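Deviations from the work plan: none for this task. Representative record:
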Amino acid sequence: MVEGEESVRVVHCGGSALNFRRAAFSADSRYLFCVSGDFIKVYSTATEECVHILQGHRNLVTGIHLNPNNHLQLYSCSFDGTIKLWDYLDGILIKTFIVGHKLHTLFTFAHAEDSVYVITNKEEPDVFQLVSVKLPKSSSQEVQAKEVSFVLDYINQSPKCIAFGSEGEYVAAVRDFYLSVYFFKKKTTSKFTLPSTKTKKRSKNTFTCVACHPKEDCIASGHMDGKIRLWRNFDDERKYTYTCLHWHHDMVMDLAFSVTGTSLLSGGRECVLVEWRDATEKNKEFLPRLGSTIEHISVSPAGDLFCTSHSDNKIMVIHRNLETSAVIQGLVKDRSISTGLMVDPRTKALVLNGKPGHLQFYSLQSDKQLYNLDIIQQEYINDTGLIQIELAKAAFNCSGKWLATVEQRKERESELELQMKLWNYNKKTQGFVLNTKIAMPHDDHITALCFCNAEKAENPTLVTASKDGRFKVWILTDDSDIYRKAVGWTCDFVGSYHKFQATNCCFSEDGSLLAVSFEETVTVWDSETWELRCTFCQRAGKIKHLCFGKLTCSKYLLGTTEQGILCCWNLLSCSLEWSAKFMVSVLEPDPTSEHIAAVSQSPVGADLFVFKPSEPRPLYIQKSICREEVQWGVFVPRDVPESFTSEAHQWLNRSQFYFLTKSQSLLTFSTKSPEEKLTPTSKQLLAEESLPITPFYFILGKHRQQQKEHLNETLKEERVQLPLTENIPAINELLHTPAHVLPSASFLCSLFVDSLLLSHGTHSTEGIPDDVDMEEEINSDDSDEEKDLAEETQHAAITDLGEDIIHQLSKSEERELRKLRKVDYSWIADL
Amino acid sequence: MASYKPVAIQTYPVLGEKVTQDTLYWNNYKTPVQIKEFGAVSKVDFSPQPPYNYAVTASSRIHIYGRFSQEPIKTFSRFKDTAYCATFRHDVQLLVAGSEDGRVQLLDIHERAPLRQFEGSYDHTVKIKNVFCVKHGQAVESVLLFPSGGLLVSSGGRYVKVWDMLKGGQLLVSLKNHHKTVTCLCLSSSGQRLLSGSLDRKVKVYSTASYKVVHSFDYTASILSLALAHEDETIVVGMTNGILSVKHRKSEAKKDSLPRRRRPAYRTFIKGKNYMKQRDDILINRPTKKHLEWYDKDLKNFRISKALDRVLEPNCVIKTPEVTVSIIKELNRRGVLANALAGRDEKEITRVLNFLIRNLSQPRFAPVLINAAEIIIDIYLPVIGQSPVVDKKFIVLQGLIEKEIDYQRELLETLGMMDMLFASMTRNESTCVLEHTPVDFLESKKIES
C-alpha cells in the first residue's frame, strides 16, 4: 500500500454472530448457509470450510431460505428492506427485490411460486405482522416488490414463533399465551389460549417456539417451563387436543421435525439435543454436553443431517444417528470479556474469554477459531442463577512460553474462591500444560497481572496486584530433587503501600522497573531489590491505566485517572512531563513502536488518539470510531509491514489496532475492506467441491465413485465431470492387463505420468484407433522405450523370438506387434 | 460433544516427610530388636560372608551375634582394658581388635584365646603409607573408603567431608547435616547411599550422586557405631547407653500362596483387534470408555444425594476426607447442596455430622464445611429435639465451634503482637511496610508437576 493518502476507516473484522438465525442446508446437504452480520456464509458440511461469503446487503441479514423452485438458489432478507436471490454455488447475486420495510424474517413455499412470506413491523415498533410479498417476474437486476398482502397480525418477530404447516395449508404463530393458526384456504384464524394466571407458576406457560409436522396435521409448541405440547385437531376451536412431552427443565429454545416427521428434535439451555421418536415420552434419544445453550435447530431437506446453533456462536452439524460430524465455530461472544484482548506471541492469534471456563485462540487472518484452552477443567452446568467460576484474568509472557490465568467465583455470603494457574507451553504436544496451581494467591480480587517482558530476563517473573492492598511477585524456581526435574512458581516478594488497593501493575520495557498503582498513587519499584524508588500522585482520582513508554520513549510512564486526566511522568527527573484532560477508556501501547493509542469516551461516541509519550500532541485523531463504548483494544503485529509514508498513518505500519465494543463486535482500522483481505484464501477453495482433492483422489477416489455410479445411474447427471480414469488408455491398460505380463514398474511409471499430463484433453470417448495413434506420437519421441516395451511384450508372448530381430523392426512390423499386444493373452494365465 | 469432566479433587500438599523411593526403602524395616550390652557400643562389624554374623565391640568384650539371634554366639572377653574396633577378615576366619592398652589382638573365630598379640607401637606392625594429607579441621572420628578407591569420606565434628583421592585429596563436598559430632560412617550395599550416625541421635542417608539427604532415622540415644548387613538386610546401630538396636528388613510381600485365578488367555484380549480392514468394510470405532469413580458416575447422571452418600462412607471419610470435601464443594457449585443434604434419616444425618465434627476445624476444609453446616442447621432446625442421637451431635459441634473461636481469638492476639514488633523494626527503614507471609498461606500453595 503505497498510497498513504487513502483514508483509514473503521471496518468490522469478522467474528460476527453465526447464530442469529436458523442455519439452512442445501438440497443435497453439502452446504450449510448461515447469516453472519451483513453477509451470508456458505460452509461445506464435510470440511467445515467457508466456501463463499455472499455480500450485498447493507444491513443485518435476518432470514435465509432456499428457493423452492430452484434448489441452487437462495433467498435472503435483511433489515435494509430488500430480498435478494443468490446463486450460492458461484456466489453471485441474481436479483434484488426492494420491499422498503425492515424485514425480520423470510419463508418460502413450493406451492406459492412467486411470493414469499416476510415479517415486518408496522408503525408501532412492537407490533409485527406476517405478510406475503409477490415477487414480480422481471429480467432487471433490481425490482420493486410492492405487492404486499397481509396474512397475520400481532405476532412475535422471531422466526421461531412462526411455522408453516404441511403443504402450506396453514400457518401457526405463537405469542405469549396464544397459539393462532391461520388457514389459507378458509382464510380463518383459530386461536388457542393457555391458562396464564390460574396456575401457581404464572407466566411459565408462555410459548417460546413452534414447529409443524411435515406430513400430518400436528403442531408442536415449546414453552417457558420446558414442556412441549403437541396440538392436534386444531381446525376446530373446541375439539382440539394436546399432549405434553416434558423433559427439559428450562425453556425450550427451538423445535424441529425431521423430514419424515417421525421424530421431533428439541433443545434448550441444558445443552442437550433431545430426539423424541414417534412423539412419545418413552422413546427419547439424547446428545448431551453440546457446550452451550441450543438456540436453533434445523434439519436438512435430505434428512441426513441436523444442525444446532449455539449461544457461543457455534454451529454443530449432527448426523442422523446423533453423532456430531462437524463444528463451525466463530468468535465466542457469549459472556463478558474480562480478560481483555491479548495476542499470543506464538501464533499471533487473538486470545480472549471463550466458552465458559475456556480461553479462545482466534485467528484474525482466517476469521476462524484456532482452539479452545480449557482453563477451569470442570463439568459445565448451565442453569439459571448459578454462579459459575469465571476466568477473570490472563497474561502471556513475551515469548509465549508461560501463560498465567486467574479464575474466581464469588458467592453471595461465602468467601471468594480464587485460583491462579500457570501454564507452560509444551513444544512436544504443542499445547499448554498446567504447571502450578495456586489456591488463594490473594485475599481479594486480583485487579491486574503482568509478566516481566524483558528479553534477557533469565527468570520469568509475574506480578499480581490485588484489592487486598498487596502486590505479589512470583518467580519460577527450580523444584527438582534427585528423583525428577521440575520447575514451579513461588512467591518472592509481597509489597504494599499504605494499605491502599493495588489497581494496576506494569513492567518497564527492559524489566528493570515495576510500576504499581495504589488507588491515586503510582509507585515505582526496582525489580532487582524490590525497593520503592519513587511515587507519583496526581490527586485526580484512582489510576485506571498504567503503561511505560517503549523504545525511545522508555523514560516516560503514562497513567490515566478516573477523573479523566492523562498524565505522563518523566522517570529521570521524577516529575510530571505533561498532562491532558480527556476521559480515556482504553490506553494501549504498541509493542513494536513508541505509539500509544488512547480511546476516549464521550456521549456521542468514541474517539481515537494516537500519540507518542515524548510530545503531548496527537499524531492521529479519528473521531467517532463507533457509537458504543469501547471496552478493550490491542495492537496486533503485522506479518508483512505496510509502508504508509504520511506521518499520521505511520502508526499502522508495524501493527494493527483492534478493539472490542460493549456489544462485542470486533473492529479495526484499515484502508482495505475486510472482504478484500479474506477472499484470496477462500477463493482457492472453490474447486468443484470443497472436498480435499489430491492426485490420489483423482485416481482412486473417482474410480471408486464411478463404480458406484454404475450401480446408481441417476446420480450421474448432477456430478461434475472430471477426467475419467476409464478414458485414459494407459491406466486402462494398467488396470486390465494381468500383472505377470506387465513390464517392470519403473518403466510403467513414466508412461503413467505421461498419461496423467494428457488427461485434461481426453473428455470425449475416444476410440481405440485414436488411442493407438496417440501412443505412437508419444512413442516416436523416445523410440528406445517403445522398443523396450515391445521387447517385454514379446518376451512374454512369443518366447522363441530372438533378440537381434527386435532391434531391427520396421515400422510395419512394429504395428503388427502392437496388434499382437492388443490380443488378449489372459488365456496364458489359465495354463 | 465433550465428554464428562470428572470432579477435580483438590489435592493438598502432604505435610511432613515427602514419600519417595528412598523413604519407602529405608522405612521398610521391622521394629528394632534391642540388645543390652555392658557398655557403650563402639563398633559393629558385619562379616562379609554368609551367614552374615556381626561382631559387636562394647567395653572390654566382643560379642559375635548371628543375624537373627538375640544371644551372642561367641564372646571374647579376655581383654584387660576396653576393646576397640573388632573387625572381620574378608574370609571370616580371623577377627582383629584393638584395646586401650595399646595392643592389637588377632583372634580366631573358633577359639577363645587370642591367636597372636601385637604389642608396642604402631610403627612396628602397621605400615602407614602417608601419600597425602587432608585437613578435616576437626577431630576425625571415622573414615571410609569407597569401594572404587577414588573417594574418601571422613567425619569429624559436625561435618562429613568427601575427598577426591585421585586429585590428590581435593575436597569434593562438605556436608553439615548433623547437630552434633558425626561418629560413624557406612555405605549401603549398592554403594549409592552413604549413611552417617551422630551423637545427635540421628542416622542420615545421603545420595552419593548429589550428596543430598534422602532419609533420616531417629534413635533414642547418641549413636556411636553403625553397620549394614549384606543387601541392606539389617541395620545395626550401637549407642552410648549400651543398647544395640537391630532392625531387620521386612520380608518381601508374600506372593499369595493361593493358586492364582486363571486369567483369560492372551488371545481373548486381542480377539478381533488384529482383524485387517477389508475393502468394503466400514470401520466403526467404539469410543474408549474413560474410567470414572462411583461418585463421578452418580454426578454425571445428576444423582446428587447418592453421590454424597458414596463419599460419606466410612472408608472414604477416614482415608480421603479431601474427596468428600471436594464433592460437597462441587454440589455447592452446582447449587444443589441443600437438595443433597435434605431428607436424611437419623442414621444418615449422624454420618454427615460426624464428618463435620471431624473436619470442620481444619483450615483447609473450613470454608466449604462451614457453608455445609449452615445449610444442615437451616434444614434440620424444625425437627431438632426428635432424636437424642442427632441432638448430641449438634451439641458436640457447637462445643467444637466455640473452642475454635477461642483459639482463633488467641491466634489473632499473637498476630497483633507480632505485627507490632515488625512495625517497630521496619519503621525507620522505609515508608513501605513489608508484610510477613502468614503460615497458612504457605500451606495452601500447591505445586503440581
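The CA atoms of residues 426 and 433 of chain B lie 7 Å apart.
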